Predict the structure of Stage 0 sporulation protein A homolog.
Amino acid sequence: MRQAVIADDEDLSIELIKYLIKRFNLPISVIGKASAGDEALEIIKNLKPDIVFLDIKMPVLNGLEVIEKIRLLQNNSIDFIVITAYSYFEYAQTSLRLGAKDILLKPIEPEQFLETMERVLGYRYSNNKIFNEVLEYINHNYQDDIKLKECADIYHTSSSYIARMFKKYYEVSFITYVNNLRINKAVVLLKNTDMPIKDIAYRVGYNNLNYFYKVFKKNIGVTPNIFKNGLIKK
């Protein structure tokens, strides 16, 4: 379950975000709210949330100043989602340069909210609360030796139920979803780091290097070596 803080000087905006989180069964718990920038800064420092919904235009400190001050504390783990009206959109663009994950434009539309959350958290949500929590668990622990039965036990359901949910919402098996996620993470590491391939395989959850090569080639069409050499040549 992700923990979130909402900072906005309009109570209606705060309540709307809380409502949308509940409506879409998102695995997010709102642990704090603020109506001014200085208050938001203190709450963020004290509660250390994973996600912050942050209005640009607030009293005392604006949203950009809050992000800057948090980043100065070397806290880059928070996903900031900036909220703004069209008239302040240029400031929102600045927030992206400061490391904000995404922008929500007022008035916030439900579809826009869901699309933003899927981009920020990295996967598509369902309308099933338990399955959303399973997805959240997998996306946070893909590097571990995740088993279907383990997920079922954690969320007090059956393996067959989770397997059906993967077929229903993603049209793939549990293990295919996990492999796809791991290979996508491996591709990012191959593109952006100089890590040896065997270390990347281990980092994304593969203890068997041969199996990693097999799954990588099936998903990407070439081996990790060829993929990496192609990047170097470019």
Observations:
- The mean pLDDT is 89.
- The CA atoms of residues 137 and 151 lie 8 Å apart.
- Strands lie at 2-7, 28-34, 51-55, 79-84, 102-105.
